């Protein structure tokens, strides 16, 4: 299929490499150096099947909705733009579009999301345990906490009655989950969930070794979306329903 890469940084270049290895063609590459080429007209004339968008919170909504308006399916891994989520989905529906969004496209992380939610359900009756979260990323990462950490926190909140929100501040209140964000190099990404009581501790952890896992998941999502219409998640792609 023909792919547009919106956000041609380190992640975009890794996506390009893996997509080509899987037999796909990159027909558009957009970075801050050629933003003038990112137009509805150019998107439409290049016979693009799917756009893969990894940019930043300030431009993600514009990038995603421009693709919808051009009739292009979108896979996006940009984080911290979700205040505009409802507007983006409205524009998707107006244009009969297709969209997969994930805070993290790694196959292992998405299995970790499911494991995290299940562990929270198991822990729900056991009030003697409190939960803490830590995420570690490279110093160039813009958002803190990471989008992956926020997804994990929300998965806990949905399944653990005594927690109602996540915070960055320490110490947290009784109904809050504190997320500790650490920035150090090199660190593609580590996320830890700890349930702690007076007598023991239960920990689950995901450690990313490179960007390849995130990039491969995005390409798998694009392949999944090729013949579909509507809104989907990575759990649909991976059969984790």
List its salient traits:
six-stranded parallel sheet, 241 residues, 8 helices, alpha/beta, 2 domains, 24% strand, Dihydrodipicolinate Reductase, domain 2, 11 strands, single chain, Rossmann fold, five-stranded mixed sheet
Total DSSP helices: 8
CATH class group of the largest domain: Alpha Beta
The CA-CA distance between the termini, in Å, is: 27 Å
Contiguous uncertain segments of 5+ residues: none
For the CA atoms, what is the radius of gyration? 19 Å
Total beta-strand segments: 11
List strands and helices in order, with pairings:
Blueprint: E1 2-6, H1 10-21, E2 25-30, H2 40-45, E3 50-53, H3 60-69, E4 73-76, H4 85-94, E5 98-101, H5 107-123, E6 130-137, H6 147-157, E7 165-167, E8 176-183, E9 190-196, E10 201-207, H7 212-225, E11 230-232, H8 234-237
Parallel strand pairs: 1-2, 1-3, 3-4, 4-5, 5-11, 6-8, 7-8
Antiparallel strand pairs: 6-9, 9-10
Describe the structure.
The protein is elongated, with a radius of gyration of 19 Å. The protein folds into 2 domains: 2-105 and 212-237, Rossmann fold (3-Layer(aba) Sandwich); 107-207, 2-Layer Sandwich (Dihydrodipicolinate Reductase, domain 2), CATH 3.30.360. It has helices at 10-21, 40-45, 60-69, 85-94, 107-123, 147-157, 212-225, 234-237, and strands at residues 2-6, 25-30, 50-53, 73-76, 98-101, 130-137, 165-167, 176-183, 190-196, 201-207, 230-232. α3 (60-69) packs parallel to α4 (85-94). The protein has 241 residues and is α/β, with parallel strands linked by helices. 38% of the residues are buried. It is 35% helix and 24% strand. α4 links the parallel β4 (73-76) and β5 (98-101). A 6-stranded parallel sheet has the order 2-1-3-4-5-11, with helices on both faces. It has a 5-stranded mixed sheet with strand order 7-8-6-9-10.
